[in-house]
Here is the input.
Amino acid sequence: TSTVSTLIAFVLGIAVAYVLVFKDIPFKKSFSTLVTLPLVLPPSVAGYLLLITFGRYGTVGRFLNNFGITIMFTIEAIILAQVFVILPFIINSLKASFEDLDPNYRKVSQILGASEWYTFRKVIMPLSRGGVFTGVIMAFARAMGEFGATMLVSGLNETMTIAIYKNAMSGKRLEADVLSVILIIV
Here is the structure.
């Protein structure tokens, strides 16, 4: 789930960071603050917000339930929780990388007739690879360690952090130790 969550957050994060840095949109500062909100929310609050939004009787979940789609207490719910929690890591890292670029690179690309898409692929992204790498690594590590939000939305599904918690609470210290060491190594 951590790999899938990181890939989803990466794609979404690139789009959001690009818009926040290179586009003039209304309420840009408010939007920027909103996308970093998961960084300061307690993880259990994030999980609860996902439950009341995507649960069977939630604002979005009720609509999806009419089509027979259930998200909560599935692997998809774990991925959703992880994406919610890790997205700000990628957005902030990419934003910083994009903002550090010399604007002359974009100007020269435009003067030479390159499209916005070409400039993004061939100029902006290669010059931002350090920020991309940092954001992806931080996001993946955070997804691997996510506990609070995933605990509330996982149902009977188990992540490594949930397994550590269950083993520690039931006195199975060796199992908890082994899983903890694996997470530390990763």
Observations:
- Residues 75-100 form the longest helix (26 residues).
